[in-house]
Amino acid sequence: MLLDAIEDEARAGGYLIDWHACDLFPETWIDLVIVLRSKSNTLYDRLKARRYPEKKLQENMDAELMEVLLAEAREAFHKDLIVEMQSNDPDDIEINAGWIEAWIQQWTLQNRGAAEEDGHVAR
Fold first, then answer.
1. Is the CB of residue 32 less than 8 Å from the CB of residue 73?
2. Is 16 helix (H, G, I), strand (E, B) or coil?
């Protein structure tokens, strides 16, 4: 039902979709998959600060250590669509944001004509 509601817009492109599972959206809708990674101690401290229950904290730690989300991304999408980024400190976040901004600008330049013809503009 959700996919039906957003299908036309998603196919047109120009959207940023934030989700935490790789089996929801068809690969044809996706131009880039970013998997944010974190060192174990950094992740632990973040989750503790958010007051995650111990069980949920451990599940998240195990998933990161076993690279579950990265493996799921690799199963669901072509390797050329997947970018793995570290997110441990403010410098990483700044670097990632700059890289993503540059990627969006390039995508917009490459897709502006098609998006405008369909009545969509990259957002």
1. no
2. coil
